[in-house]
Design a protein that fits this description.
By secondary structure, this protein is mainly alpha-helical. It is built from 26 helices and seven strands. The strands form three sheets. Strands 4-3-5 form a three-stranded antiparallel β-sheet. A two-stranded antiparallel ribbon has the order 1-2. A two-stranded antiparallel sheet has the order 6-7.
Length: about 650
């Protein structure tokens, strides 16, 4: 038979694929790199290093590793095993309890919200990448048309305090206070140059005589910060002031979606090849930055602040540090988004998903630690050049990626080259996560409507990309960063913890953890009772309890979101709450629908008649009596109907198609 590829789902299904309905990964490496690319994202570079630095240095690694073992890894393994066992996406995979299918639906809705703003972050990296293609980085000075009056490329010396009580009746002091806009009882940081002039007018020996005992180096707004605020964001004063669309940022967003679409056009068959570059290139760049950074003066000081001698071991006693460690490991593994279920659903049934989970989780954590060294060696050099301590020049999130580190790059020789590498690295890190986010959405839709959508995957992906691009345009306006931060604060925060808690409780307590272990052993082989002791302890008790504690603590300490000190109005906060409420609404909606469809509460929580392995050859005695999956029945009926139509119209000859030349 000369069968090569078919395109019944818009993505090539090769003759060697085990699952001829959905297709499989071409190679094991495609899947592993996709999982690593999904888990290792922007947060590993711009969030973990700062969290470690800000929460005790090396002391932060203790709660981090404990949370990794007790919460991160168990959820990761659970999701990959669920997807591989069912060969289904996030919604259909929850057939083990139809009443809980709303959890999968909620995951998909959250993915839609996140994909809208996450690609805008990727667009920022595209913007910076093209801005770096020059002989002089545009954020290296304040001599550009976009620079504000407050922009300063140099530090000035300020007195942190003054004591002018003894001279309050002097006219020169009265004039001085009027010039700096303060009163004698509330004098703050004042220019050393002005204080020296005042001291001379008062005929005192030195500035210390009028209370200037401490001098600090300050500047108003750095040139990288001005570039970020005034040129990239063109930020307005609040979310109420939408302003104009930044054309450059909009075009960057278009480029980002263009790359995502053509990488996803054939599903895992195409994205599985793209990740060979996007998942490995960041490691090359991080290694180059680490080697270069280690040779720079001041690098050691940066490392000491990261996880070196500046470590504060007392931080281990702080409950907030444990919450941050749990939150970081949970979100950095991309668990409970549904993406892991979607990726593993394309595995072959006998794939060792346990070994894969260990590999991906280990690589993810090592990458976070490794990225910290690469970041802090360069930041340490920048601090030395600026004459400031490391803790005053480093920050997290957007400020680290688009302000602090770009400024550090300007201190390096041939800085445009390093900038190009850095932002290309951030671009590829973001793409991998976005690929899986979109894959989770597409897989869920196609699994729900296989007969209607599987043959139209490329078209559905294009329509989805266009819609998500249009929905992302508000994030390209002058108020865009406020919208982005609002969505990130609600859609990608504690709602995800609720998903994880319901997911692990649903499998361990409703479906049955021991039943699920038997399902896993059908894929990876029988294991000893001791092997499963750890997993039973985590799934039944430790993991859900830890996640509930983190959720409760997060809600107790919840504060209204802000950006750059700007508070959100009531209507904006209401929109934020509505996004998470809309997502969570699918959980009771699906449950009620299941109660009605299955004729009762108890039946709705029992496995569906078509729950089990997708392919008959893998069902064994345990699932010999299960119904054929609804998705498979619908798809096969549609394919046969299409063949019959083509034969009738003279478009298809099965004997010819299946005969070798």
């Amino acid at each position: 038979m000369a069968t090569t590829n078919t395109t019944q789902d818009g993505a090539a299904v090769s003759a060697k694929d085990e699952n001829q309905d959905r297709g499989n990964w071409d190679h094991k490496a495609d899947y592993l790199l996709s999982c690593i690319g999904y888990a290792v994202g922007l947060g590993n570079v711009w969030r973990f290093p700062y969290l470690a630095f800000d929460n005790g240095g090396a002391a932060f690694l203790v709660p981090y590793l404990i949370m990794l073992v007790l919460a991160g890894l168990p959820i990761f393994f659970l999701e990959t095993a669920l997807g591989q066992f069912t060969s289904m996406g996030p919604i259909s995979a929850f057939k083990f309890s139809p009443a809980l299918r709303g959890i999968g639906a909620c995951m998909v809705i959250l993915n839609i919200f996140v994909s809208i703003y996450y690609n805008v972050i990727i667009a920022y990296t595209v913007f910076y990448f093209f801005a770096s293609l020059t002989s002089k980085l545009p954020w290296s000075d304040c001599d550009n048309f976009w620079n504000s009056a407050d922009c300063s490329s140099v530090f000035r010396e300020n007195c942190t305090s003054l004591n002018l009580t003894s001279y309050k009746d002097e006219s020169v002091v009265t004039n001085f206070l009027a010039d700096v806009g303060t009163t004698i009882g509330s004098i703050g940081s004042v220019s050393l140059e002005l204080v020296e002039s005042l001291a001379s007018s008062l005929n005192v020996s030195n500035v210390a005589a009028i209370g200037c005992t401490t001098v600090e180096a300050v500047r108003s707004v750095s040139s990288p910060e001005d570039f970020w605020e005034e040129y990239v964001l063109t930020r307005s004063s609040s979310i109420d002031e939408t302003g104009k669309i930044n054309i450059g940022l909009m075009l960057s967003l278009m480029v980002a979606w263009f790359v995502v679409y053509f990488s996803m056009i054939r599903g895992v068959k195409s994205s599985g090849k793209v990740v060979y570059f996007t998942a490995t290139f960041p490691y090359i760049v991080l290694l180059v930055f680490l080697v270069r950074g280690a040779t720079l003066e001041g690098a050691n000081e940066g490392i000491q602040f990261y996880i070196g001698s500046k470590t504060n071991w007392t931080k281990i006693q702080d409950a907030e540090v444990w919450k941050r460690a749990a939150t970081q490991i949970f979100f950095s593994l991309s668990a409970a988004w549904g993406g892991l279920i979607a990726l593993s659903s394309y595995n072959k049934f006998k794939n060792n998903c346990f070994a894969d989970s260990i590999i991906v989780v280990t690589v993810n954590s090592i990458t976070s630690l490794f990225a910290g060294f690469a970041i802090f060696t360069v930041v340490g050099h920048m601090a030395l050049k600026l004459g400031k301590p490391v803790n005053e020049v480093v920050d997290s999130g957007f400020s680290l990626a688009f302000v602090a580190y770009p400024e550090a790059i300007t201190q390096l020789p041939v800085s445009p080259l390093w900038a190009v590498l850095f932002f290309l690295m951030l671009f590829t890190l973001g793409l991998d996560s976005q690929f899986t986010t979109i894959e989770a959405i597409m897989t869920s839709l196609i699994d729900l409507f296989p007969a209607q959508l599987r043959a139209k995957r490329a078209s559905i992906t294009l329509l989805s990309v266009i819609l998500l691009f249009l929905l992302g345009l508000p994030c390209c306006t002058e108020a865009g960063i406020y919208w982005l931060n609002l969505l990130d604060s609600y859609a990608a925060d504690w709602g995800l913890l609720i998903m994880a808690i319901l997911e692990v409780i649903g499998i361990a307590w409703i479906y049955g953890g021991n039943r699920f272990i038997e399902d896993i052993e059908m894929m990876i082989g029988k294991k000893s009772w001791w092997f499963w002791l750890y997993w039973r302890a985590c799934w039944f008790f430790i993991t859900p309890v830890l996640l509930i504690m983190v959720l409760v603590w997060s809600l107790v300490t919840l504060e209204p979101p802000t950006y750059a000190g700007v508070e959100y109005p009531g209507w904006a906060q209401a929109i934020g709450w509505l996004t998470i409420a809309f997502s969570l609404l699918f959980i009771p909606a699906f449950a009620i629908h299941s109660f009605i469809s299955y004729g009762g509460f108890r039946r709705a929580f029992r496995p569906a008649a078509d729950w089990g392995p997708y392919l008959a050859q893998h069902r064994g005695a345990r699932y010999a009596g299960m119904d054929e999956p609804r998705e498979a029945v619908a798809l096969h009926a549609a394919i046969q109907a299409e063949k019959a139509s083509n034969v009738k119209e003279g478009k298809y000859n099965e004997a010819y198609e299946n005969t070798a030349l």
